[in-house]
Design brief:
This protein is mostly helical. Helix content is about 80%, strand content about 0%.
């Protein structure tokens, strides 16, 4: 059931993003609306990412989880993980800042779909929607009707997928528990506790934001988004959860479609608060393990680097650990040290993806309140 469920979601996620963004922008009928929601959403995403990283750094510096790690465990991790870590680092060459900026433009849209490059797909869809705003309605009507039909079809398939969701979640969770085991968790227990504590704190920050800036009851909000959270936890993929996030925002929380269909796809590509928090905790944990002292300026640089690394990170399982290798190289920690935390990465990936998805839905609630019709 889990394989079938994921297959159905992955089948519709790209057409859903394209159709939703184009329809949302074209139906808004105003370039001013797009500028308003785009500018505010990006500033909001950067602000919450900075908050998440700060929480992670404060908790890790307070608990000092890397100070008491068994030296034998470090030697074992370095001995077993050096080859894998090196290979991971080599795949990060295209994550440098100039290449990352260039990689945002979908020069080959078919290739972007094939590679599931969500950031390129989102930007291409935004450009198409903006272009349609500047054209006469009769000339764009066929494309707009096609996008609306595509959206209806994809949502119907998502409805079918949700009927097997409980069985799918059970299957996916059983597989993960079998693969993970408890030995990996106990060896770096304080590190796991720091990440989970930070993610929980960020979840509480979201509830305050929802209440103060979104005008919603936190409990009602959590009840409305629980399906998306469960799917995010079991799949570890913001991209796979995106169709469910759109469905619960529109159907359960009754949010405006033009805001939902713009904010959630954009958030799933650049709003990675859970991932950013995890990367900050992991980086500081490994600096403590390898006794690398960071000055205040280096801490600030780590924050900025993590914000930049989290933006545009592919919304796929396990990518956070790859991006982490880039951050570690910048602060003088051996990339091979990642082997020390690989054993628990799957569990933490599930938790941070849940926070990522919760953050996207929180942002949608805030934009709903801030941007009037």
């Amino acid at each position: 059931p889990g394989v079938i469920f994921l297959g159905l979601l992955q089948m519709v996620v790209v057409p859903l993003i394209i159709c939703s963004i184009i329809t949302g922008i074209a139906d808004s009928g105003s370039m001013e609306f797009v500028k308003k929601i785009g500018g505010r959403a990006i500033l909001y995403f950067i602000a919450t990412t900075c908050i998440a990283i700060t929480i992670g750094m404060l908790i890790t510096n307070w608990v000092q989880p890397g100070a008491n790690v068994d030296p034998a465990l470090i030697e074992n991790a370095l001995g077993n993980g050096s080859i894998d870590a090196t290979n991971s680092v080599q795949t990060l060459e295209d994550l440098t800042i100039p290449k990352r900026i260039a990689n945002m433009i979908p020069t080959n849209f078919t290739k972007a779909q094939f590679e599931k490059n969500m950031l390129q797909i989102v930007i291409g869809s935004i450009l198409a929607g903006l272009a349609m705003l500047g054209l006469s309605k009769p000339s764009v009507a066929p494309v707009l009707n096609l996008c609306k039909a595509g959206q209806i079809l994809t949502m119907r398939i998502i409805g079918w997928a949700m009927k097997i969701a409980p069985y799918a979640v059970f299957g996916l969770m059983a597989q993960i528990v079998i693969q993970l085991g408890f030995e990996a968790i106990t060896s770096v227990g304080l590190y796991v506790a720091c990440v989970l504590g930070g993610l929980l704190a960020m979840g509480l920050v979201y509830m305050v934001i929802v209440s103060v800036f979104g005008g919603l009851s936190p409990l009602a909000f959590l009840r409305g988004i629980r399906e998306a959270q469960i799917i995010a936890f079991s799949t570890s993929s913001s991209a796979a959860t995106m169709p469910i996030s759109i469905a619960v925002a529109e159907e359960k929380l009754k949010m405006r479609p033009e805001i939902v269909r713009f904010t959630i796809p954009l958030g799933a590509t650049i709003n990675m608060d859970g991932t950013a928090l995890y990367q900050a905790v992991a980086a500081l944990f490994l600096t403590q393990v390898f006794q690398v002292d960071l000055s205040f300026n280096e801490m600030v640089l780590l924050l900025v680097t993590t914000v930049g690394a989290s933006i545009g990170t592919p919304a796929l399982p396990g990518v956070g650990i790859v991006v982490l290798a880039t951050i570690l190289l910048g602060i003088g920690v051996p990339a091979e040290g990642i082997a020390l935390i690989l054993g628990v990465d799957r569990l933490l990936d599930m938790c941070r993806t849940t926070i990522n998805v919760t953050g996207d839905l929180t942002a949608t609630a805030v934009m709903q309140k801030w941007i009037k019709k």
